[in-house]
Amino acid sequence: MMIRFFPLRIQTRLKSDYPLLTFEQLVSTNGIRKGQTCRISLRDYLEWQNFPNIMKRENFFTQRKSVSTVSQEDPFLFDNLLDYDPLFSRCLAKWLLVNYKLNDYPYYDLNIVNIYTDLPQGIQLCKSLMTYLKSTLSNNMFQKIKYFMIPLYKCENVPSKLLDGIPGSVNLIQDYPVSPDLLQKKFLIEDPVQILMLNDVIKYTTHDLVRYSSHDDAWQQCFVDVNEIGQKKRTFESDIDYSCKLALEQLFGDQSNLVFDKELYIPTKLIEILMTIKNNIPEHRLFAVDTPQRSSPTVISILKSLLYPRKVGSSQVVEQHSDSIFSDKCSGRTHFITDFLQLKNVYNDINSSSRSCEVEDIADFVEKWISASERGARSLSNRETPQLEDIKNSSLAILHST
């Protein structure tokens, strides 16, 4: 049944006196009780809806549904990174190894931290990567590799047998999630670290919905108000919370190219994670894969771009159902397709004194790191030959340190 919205009135609205609930409070109290009134930032509301679905673990031994067999009515036709394995894993292994030899060997271990939501995918990619490194390195050098898997959200009771068959030192961290205070309290590493986010993190990090109000001449953040009978409405307030304020400062610090009253989804959670990594592991390298925003410019749009300054865009939100944001029983997931060039600028600003990154299509990355012998028909198995063609047509892109 569709949820009814409150009517929006064009008048000065008194600030709601509903108690503010955070994502953590919603999780710890099992949601909103009947008859309870509350206010929730749209970011926390979406995160509360999303996290049980994105961390829902499939049976590891169950064959995952490939993209080609998904119904065309499914709005989530994102590329599956496992379709490109083991070619992709071998290229990633070379990238990690070359950067390690150039920057950290022999004084430090090769510490790899894979932040994940998709446990079966994470296990498979880890196995492919570590197996390849084992086959190419000496025993002494391979022993310097330490691989950690950290969930985006708490993921308990993961059986250790899932690591059976994976060579080397691999650790499943499951008793705490990635959060702003994660690394300060429990995972402080002084050595250099390679951070991986392999096509299952960026699209799930929740966003704030904001706008720059021409009436208030200030930024406003979107909240969800819930009344006594469970009806919901969204409202915009100039009293924005701390995390949203930090994200706005990163994205619009110079106040340039603002568009008044335009609603924008901004990647608050992802910026929070990037700042946490910078503050606690300044010596790190980032390697993130996901689906970026892409445009097909027309002649008219090109002419407009010459006449008007570029506007900072919004992440695209993809929902399974049109009313999913306001549904208490949403079984789907809300995805965000972010602007990778914007993320690149944010990352470079956060890490201005130490690290920078660039954006690269996955096809260009593989072309750069696959060897001539691997590209040859004789060295590729029957399964890997179509993988190379699929990678060339992939929509995925990589955001990685330089």
From TrEMBL:
Location within or outside the cell: Mitochondrion
Superkingdom classification of source: Eukaryota
InterPro entries: NDUFAF7 (IPR003788)
Annotated Gene Ontology cellular component terms: mitochondrion
Any coiled-coil regions, as ranges: none
This protein's record includes keyword Transferase: yes
Keyword Acetylation: no
Catalysed reactions, as listed in the record: L-arginyl-[protein] + 2 S-adenosyl-L-methionine = N(omega),N(omega)'-dimethyl-L-arginyl-[protein] + 2 S-adenosyl-L-homocysteine + 2 H(+)
Biological processes annotated in GO: methylation
Record key words, sorted: Methyltransferase, Mitochondrion, Transferase
EC number: 2.1.1.320
GO molecular function list: protein-arginine omega-N symmetric methyltransferase activity
Pfam families hit by this protein: Methyltransf_28 (PF02636)
Family under the similarity heading: Belongs to the NDUFAF7 family.
Function: Arginine methyltransferase involved in the assembly or stability of mitochondrial NADH:ubiquinone oxidoreductase complex (complex I).
Protein name listed in UniProt: Protein arginine methyltransferase NDUFAF7
Gene from which the chain derives: SKDI11G0590
